[in-house]
Protein backbone atom coordinates (compact mmCIF):
# COMPACT_ATOMS: atom_id res chain seq x y z
CA UNK A 1 0.00 0.00 0.00
CA UNK A 2 1.32 3.44 -0.92
CA UNK A 3 0.17 6.76 0.51
CA UNK A 4 1.58 9.94 -1.06
CA UNK A 5 0.90 13.44 0.25
CA UNK A 6 2.21 16.75 -1.11
CA UNK A 7 1.32 19.88 0.80
CA UNK A 8 1.72 21.59 4.13
CA UNK A 9 2.80 19.55 7.10
CA UNK A 10 4.45 19.87 10.47
CA UNK A 11 5.91 17.82 13.28
CA UNK A 12 4.84 18.23 16.90
CA UNK A 13 6.00 16.11 19.82
CA UNK A 14 7.48 13.51 17.47
CA UNK A 15 4.27 13.10 15.45
CA UNK A 16 3.80 14.22 11.85
CA UNK A 17 0.67 15.99 10.67
CA UNK A 18 -0.72 16.87 7.25
CA UNK A 19 -2.49 20.22 7.12
CA UNK A 20 -5.79 20.41 5.18
CA UNK A 21 -6.16 23.46 2.95
CA UNK A 22 -9.05 24.73 5.08
CA UNK A 23 -7.41 24.17 8.50
CA UNK A 24 -7.74 27.24 10.75
CA UNK A 25 -4.56 28.92 11.95
CA UNK A 26 -2.73 28.48 14.19
CA UNK A 27 -2.54 24.82 13.20
CA UNK A 28 -3.28 22.35 15.97
CA UNK A 29 -3.32 18.53 15.82
CA UNK A 30 -7.10 18.41 16.24
CA UNK A 31 -7.56 20.19 12.89
CA UNK A 32 -4.92 18.20 11.02
CA UNK A 33 -4.43 14.60 9.88
CA UNK A 34 -2.03 12.43 11.85
CA UNK A 35 0.38 10.47 9.66
CA UNK A 36 0.59 7.84 12.40
CA UNK A 37 -3.19 7.38 12.14
CA UNK A 38 -2.89 6.82 8.39
CA UNK A 39 -0.15 4.23 8.99
CA UNK A 40 -2.30 2.48 11.60
CA UNK A 41 -5.18 2.20 9.11
CA UNK A 42 -2.80 0.84 6.47
CA UNK A 43 -1.38 -1.75 8.88
CA UNK A 44 -4.89 -3.00 9.66
CA UNK A 45 -5.08 -4.18 6.04
CA UNK A 46 -2.15 -6.57 6.68
CA UNK A 47 -0.30 -5.63 3.51
CA UNK A 48 3.24 -6.89 2.89
CA UNK A 49 4.52 -3.33 2.48
CA UNK A 50 3.15 0.02 3.64
CA UNK A 51 4.87 3.07 2.20
CA UNK A 52 4.06 6.64 3.22
CA UNK A 53 5.71 9.38 1.18
CA UNK A 54 5.37 12.90 2.59
CA UNK A 55 6.41 15.66 0.22
CA UNK A 56 5.99 18.36 2.83
CA UNK A 57 7.84 21.34 4.14
CA UNK A 58 8.44 21.22 7.87
CA UNK A 59 10.31 24.50 8.25
CA UNK A 60 8.84 27.11 10.56
CA UNK A 61 9.50 30.58 9.19
CA UNK A 62 8.83 33.50 11.50
CA UNK A 63 6.36 35.06 9.06
CA UNK A 64 5.80 33.01 5.91
CA UNK A 65 5.45 35.45 3.01
CA UNK A 66 2.46 35.00 0.73
CA UNK A 67 3.49 33.36 -2.56
CA UNK A 68 7.15 33.21 -1.56
CA UNK A 69 9.43 32.23 -4.46
CA UNK A 70 13.05 31.10 -4.17
CA UNK A 71 15.66 31.84 -6.83
CA UNK A 72 15.76 29.92 -10.12
CA UNK A 73 12.00 29.33 -10.21
CA UNK A 74 12.08 27.13 -7.13
CA UNK A 75 9.31 27.63 -4.59
CA UNK A 76 9.17 26.54 -0.98
CA UNK A 77 6.05 25.40 0.84
CA UNK A 78 6.47 26.86 4.33
CA UNK A 79 4.37 25.38 7.10
CA UNK A 80 3.69 27.03 10.45
CA UNK A 81 3.64 25.33 13.83
CA UNK A 82 6.36 23.55 15.76
CA UNK A 83 8.25 21.38 13.33
CA UNK A 84 11.62 20.24 12.09
CA UNK A 85 13.77 22.66 10.10
CA UNK A 86 13.19 21.18 6.65
CA UNK A 87 11.94 22.68 3.40
CA UNK A 88 10.36 21.14 0.30
CA UNK A 89 10.99 22.93 -2.98
CA UNK A 90 8.96 22.98 -6.17
CA UNK A 91 9.92 23.58 -9.78
CA UNK A 92 7.65 25.98 -11.66
CA UNK A 93 7.06 25.08 -15.31
CA UNK A 94 4.51 27.50 -16.69
CA UNK A 95 1.22 26.80 -14.91
CA UNK A 96 2.41 23.45 -13.49
CA UNK A 97 4.64 22.75 -10.52
CA UNK A 98 6.24 19.59 -9.25
CA UNK A 99 8.28 19.02 -6.13
CA UNK A 100 11.99 18.28 -6.35
CA UNK A 101 11.24 15.08 -4.41
CA UNK A 102 8.69 13.98 -7.04
CA UNK A 103 11.11 14.80 -9.87
CA UNK A 104 13.57 12.20 -8.57
CA UNK A 105 10.98 9.77 -7.22
CA UNK A 106 9.58 9.39 -10.76
CA UNK A 107 13.09 8.58 -11.97
CA UNK A 108 13.58 5.72 -9.49
CA UNK A 109 10.15 4.47 -8.37
CA UNK A 110 9.88 1.45 -10.69
CA UNK A 111 13.39 0.12 -10.14
CA UNK A 112 13.49 -3.52 -9.14
CA UNK A 113 15.30 -3.01 -5.85
CA UNK A 114 14.49 -2.85 -2.16
CA UNK A 115 12.30 0.19 -1.52
CA UNK A 116 14.79 1.61 1.00
CA UNK A 117 17.55 1.45 -1.64
CA UNK A 118 15.28 3.13 -4.17
CA UNK A 119 14.58 5.96 -1.71
CA UNK A 120 18.30 6.29 -0.96
CA UNK A 121 18.85 6.84 -4.71
CA UNK A 122 16.21 9.62 -4.60
CA UNK A 123 17.98 11.12 -1.56
CA UNK A 124 21.33 11.09 -3.37
CA UNK A 125 19.86 12.79 -6.45
CA UNK A 126 18.27 15.50 -4.30
CA UNK A 127 21.60 16.01 -2.57
CA UNK A 128 23.30 16.60 -5.94
CA UNK A 129 20.63 18.94 -7.37
CA UNK A 130 22.22 22.41 -7.55
CA UNK A 131 18.83 24.11 -7.03
CA UNK A 132 18.42 22.68 -3.54
CA UNK A 133 21.89 21.53 -2.40
CA UNK A 134 22.14 22.23 1.31
CA UNK A 135 18.55 23.53 1.48
CA UNK A 136 16.28 20.50 1.06
CA UNK A 137 16.80 17.47 3.27
CA UNK A 138 15.07 14.13 2.85
CA UNK A 139 14.45 11.85 5.82
CA UNK A 140 13.94 8.09 5.52
CA UNK A 141 12.40 6.11 8.37
CA UNK A 142 11.57 2.44 8.02
CA UNK A 143 10.90 -0.78 9.87
CA UNK A 144 11.33 -3.18 6.95
CA UNK A 145 12.42 -6.64 8.02
CA UNK A 146 12.30 -8.18 4.53
CA UNK A 147 13.57 -6.97 1.17
CA UNK A 148 10.47 -5.47 -0.45
CA UNK A 149 10.27 -3.69 -3.78
CA UNK A 150 7.48 -1.72 -5.40
CA UNK A 151 7.85 -4.07 -8.36
CA UNK A 152 7.07 -7.20 -6.28
CA UNK A 153 4.12 -9.21 -7.61
CA UNK A 154 0.87 -8.61 -5.75
Automatic annotation (TrEMBL):
Domain (Peptidase C14 caspase): residue spans on this chain: 1-78
Domain of life of the organism encoding this protein: Eukaryota
Gene Ontology terms: biological process: proteolysis
GO molecular function: cysteine-type endopeptidase activity
Matching InterPro entries: Caspase-like_dom_sf, Caspase-related_regulators, Pept_C14_caspase
Name of the featured protein: MALT1 protein
Species in which this protein is naturally found: Centropus bengalensis (lesser coucal)
Amino acid sequence: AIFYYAGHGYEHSGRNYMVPVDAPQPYVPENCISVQRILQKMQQQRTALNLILLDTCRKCPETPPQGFFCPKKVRTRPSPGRCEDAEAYELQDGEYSSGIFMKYLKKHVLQDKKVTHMLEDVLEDIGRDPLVTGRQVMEIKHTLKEARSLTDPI
